[in-house]
Amino acid sequence: MLSIGTMAALCGTSVQTLRLYDKKGLLPAARIDPDSGYRYYTNGQIFLFQTIRLLQRTGMSLAEIRETLQKDPVDLRSLWDSQEKAILQKQQELHEMEIMVHQQQKQLEEASLMQQHAGKGPYIKRVSATLLSLPIEKEGITPKVEPNDAVSLLDQHLLSLHIIPALSYGFLFPRKGYKDLSEIIYSHTIKKIESIPQSIPEDLTLIKAEENFLAIDFIWSRENYLSYYHSLLDAARKQHLKLASVAYEISYPLDFYKVESGKRFIAELGTRIVGK
Prior knowledge:
Pfam families: MerR_1
Coiled coil: 87-114
GO molecular function: DNA binding; DNA-binding transcription factor activity
InterPro entries: DNA-bd_dom_put_sf, MerR-type_HTH_dom, MerR_fam, Reg_factor_effector_dom_sf
Keywords: Coiled coil, DNA-binding, Repressor, Transcription, Transcription regulation
Order of helices and strands: EHHEEHHHEHEEEHEE
């Protein structure tokens, strides 16, 4: 037989815990010395101890565990089936948390790089990203208006696909020589995603970007938006770059914990360079 000290060492626990389990009727000692009161255990009780600890980790109280262990062994099968489902659910939740942490890290890194480029003029960047785009049905969504409805609609689609929406959001619009901000009408809402869903609704389009883009970064401002856009086009002309017919805007909140009216955004305007 195993002394209580040996049993504690083999189980990776303390003598006090074994005494508590004995007191609660969970793991009675196999023998108690009548003279010394010292407790002894059998090798088979090591398995019972591990079972108790496992059930504790699932959130069951000691009283619930004692009641469970007193049931017919056949009933225990349904218990373990339910515990397996709970564990799988927890694994899924942890996986989603891991994706969200990775997503937040990547977004903060991208926002930091944009801040480093802010105010320094257009530059060429290599983009490697996967996005989903959704056509904007509501007319007249321009940089002059709040785009909350268009953004939230894409977020709802992403949530239905079990994708956690990114903090950043963006838009596509035709690349033209606009003279007024109201002339820029967004055609699509876009958001970056970390993993590709198995099935994509018909109204969503998957975009895989692995190309060079001409971009300009700035603190988002309606007053300066158009001048930054023209700086982008001027740089393309000076460098003799051929640009795609579609431009994009991507924005990251710099203080996303604030209410909407108090938010600041680091923004990027850009377009794909054709043939480079």
